[in-house]
UniProtKB/TrEMBL annotation:
Superkingdom field: Bacteria
Segments for region (Disordered): 39-81
Biased composition regions of type Low complexity, renumbered to the chain: 65-76
Residue stretches of biased makeup (Basic and acidic residues): 45-57
Protein name, UniProt field: Uncharacterized protein
Length: 141
């Protein structure tokens, strides 16, 4: 197991944007977080750093430090994190899944993606009307 983040690195992780995971810190702090697998540097300018899913888990206190990556090993978790696919809640579930910050990020990301689909496919870039993809993929509620 890797050492836990230093106090300074922990402050950078805790100060990350709650939705996007954007990090602000010194270059050495950000580089150390990248080496530990808790952050990544975006390839496009301005090359900001963002938390990885493992970094979000450390921030939420679910894990203390990243586990070493092994072939075929995946962290055991429940909900959408285990499938890697966003799933809308339509009611009828026996128990609501975790409604914490991770779910809030998933919902926000899915909503932003849907708005982008609407903008790209509707005439004039309207985002207030459903697009063709939404009409073809109705969710039974």
């Amino acid at each position: 197991m890797t050492r836990p983040p230093t106090v300074a690195q922990r402050r950078v992780i805790d100060a990350a944007d709650p939705v996007t995971g954007r990090l602000r810190g010194t270059e050495s702090q950000l580089t150390a977080l990248v080496k530990r697998g808790l952050a990544f540097r975006h390839p496009r300018p301005p090359h900001d750093h963002f938390l990885t899913p493992e970094g979000h888990r450390v921030r939420q206190g679910i894990t203390q430090a990243p586990e070493p990556d092994g072939p075929g090993e995946a962290p055991a978790s429940t909900g959408t994190a285990s499938t890697g696919v966003f799933a809308a809640r339509v009611g009828g579930e026996e128990a609501a899944a975790d409604a914490g910050p991770a779910r809030r990020r998933e919902v926000h990301s899915a909503w932003q993606g849907l708005l982008e689909l609407r903008r790209m496919t509707n005439p004039g870039g309207d985002v207030d009307r459903p697009c063709g993809w939404e009409r073809a993929h109705l969710v039974r509620a």
